[in-house]
Every structure is written in structure tokens, then in C-alpha cells.
# Entry
Amino acid sequence: MLKRSRILAGGLFFLLLVGAATGMTFFFLRYRAIQETLEEFRPLTDAHRLVKEQYVREVVELDLLEGALGGMVDTLGDPYSEYLTQQRYRELEIQTQGMYGGIGVVLTILGEDLVILDPPLAGSPAAEANLREGDMIRSIDDVPVSEITFERAAELIRGPVGTEVVLGLEREGEEFTVTLRRDEIHLDTVRSQILGDTEGIGYLRVSMFNDYTGQELAGHMADLMEQGLQALIMDLRGNPGGILGAAVEVAEFFLPKGKPVLHVRARDGLEQTIYTGGSGHFEIPLVVLVDGGSASGAEIVAGALKDNDRAILVGTKTFGKGSVQSIYELKNGGGLKLTTALYITAGGHSIDKEGITPDVVVEYNEGAESDVQLEAAMEILQEGEDN
# Structure
């Protein structure tokens, strides 16, 4: 019995030695990894020390840190990834919670210009200042629009209700400046009508995707059906996108349950597919208008309808904004907006920097007296009726 106990004790002692050795190996490897990481960052810490000690003037520690963080993200070459200062991060938090004001316009990108898409909302600060559809915004609070992304421009225009924003604009070759006081804004994102001289062809304009777009679209579709809707043109030209869920909801109005709307591809190549969940949908003939200002959510809707053979796309190639941004809070109170995934269309086509080429390419003719793209869409639907 004593011998057996000694054997057990010896075995236990051996196991303890193995466990200790394994733990020591783990901590040694962790120590080596930390050492290697510190060695990689040695040039950065050396530069930081030299700037603080040798630069001709004193420097602010926070400025050095934020410069390093901003430079790190800038090297990615991704216009949608950026370091957010403490102030920027706080502003973004407020805006995402809906506690902000605006000026009452929908913006889009035409070529390289930031343009007011539709007439400003009646009674809004933009309408009171006599801003018009087609006005080009050149600067926001003295920040040139050409030097920032569309998302940053939208952030600068939004802000607390009652605060002011200064816009530099261009209209028909003349530049001017206006100062606007932000107000609470609820923009209608959908408008519709039955087109004249047609047999029940409806026109549905979706200018962007927000929390109310799906509800608005349902109301407009009900009105159009009461007016004898037989076929539909959905206009997504200049639509800059918006809330992903709203874009999916719009696609669901025209696709049966269980159809893919888009795939979200992560850096490891894994994909998550988002399918339509609704059971009721409209089966009427459908043409979708797109152009270079159709971006993000608009491209998701257009791609889903095209790849599921549900609609004919007419117009010009879309913008090509198919990336997902995630926002992370940093310990210094700032934040990091980082591209973490890509949108892929229902048929497996990449949107990012590629865009979507319509089935029928019709260039917009600025000098024409009529909308040639809309006319092309009407012809397609009328020919379908004849056949």
C-alpha cells in the first residue's frame, strides 16, 4: 500500500512538473511575442522621443499621438477608414443616436461634385435660403469638399439644432456663400406618380434610405395601385444609400421570400447572406434607373433586383461603394472607423470600386429638353406590354 502511494505521489509530482513546464513555456512564448512587438515599434518610440527632446519647439503630446494614429490609417489608402478625434467621435455618437439637426437637403455625387439632389424640403433652412436642386456644394465651414469623403461632408452639414453651418456653393458658374441655422429635419425619401399618357406606368423616386423609407414606400405603392398601376419605374439615380436595413426592406417589396439580397464578405473570405423575409411582394414589370450617383444601399437594391432577374436596369454605371465600416472606441476617447467587410451582390458580383453596369446603358444628356433615361425606361415597359 505504501509503495502504491509512493507511485501515485511520484506520478502526481511528475504531472505537476509537466504542468509547470507547460505554463513556463506558454509565458515564455508570450514574452517572446511581446518582445518582438516592442522591437517592431522601436522606430516609432525612438522618433517620438527625438521629436519631444530635439524638435526646435515644444510639442503637445496629444497632437503627436493623434498624428500617429491618423497616419497609420491613412496608409491603408481607404477613403472610408479614418481616425476620429475625441470631438469627431462624440459628434458621430450624437448623430447616430438621432439627436441632430440638418438643413433639409438630400445630397449626391455627380462626377466629382457634391450636388443637392432634389428640391429642398419646404420650410427647411435650405428652402428658406433659396437653395435649389442642382446647386453644387464647394465647401462646408471653409473645408473644401474636394478634400473629404461624401460621408464626412454629410457629417459636417449635420449638427445640433440651432447651430450654424456655412456653405460655399456654385450655381450656373457663379459662386456664393450662405449661412444656415440647423433645424430638426424629417425628409420624405419617396415620391411617386402615374406618368401621363401611359397605360398605368408608375414612377417611384427613392432619394435615400432611412428609418422611414420602407413605410413611405408602402404608402406610395398602395396609392399607385389604387390609380391602376400596371408597371413601375423605380428611380435610384443620385441615391447615396443610407441604412442597410431600409435598403433590404425596399428590395423585399419586389422579391419573393427567401431570395438573396446581398452577401457580406469578411476579411477571412467568409460570407453571410441576407435573404428576403417577407412573403408579400409586387410582381408587376419593373425597370430601375441608376447612374454614377447611385451608391451603397442603392447599389444593393439595384444589384438584388438585377441578379434575381426581377428588374431591368437602365442608365449609367453606379458609383461603386460596397464596403462596410465599423466604428471602434479607443482608450484616448477617440475612435477608429475601419472598413471591415465588403458588400457582394446577390449574384456574387463585387460592388466596391466596380459599381454595377446597367442592362441598358443610356447616357444622361444634360442639354436635352427631356429625361432620356426615363424615356428609355418607359419604352421598355411599353414594348413589354405590346409583346
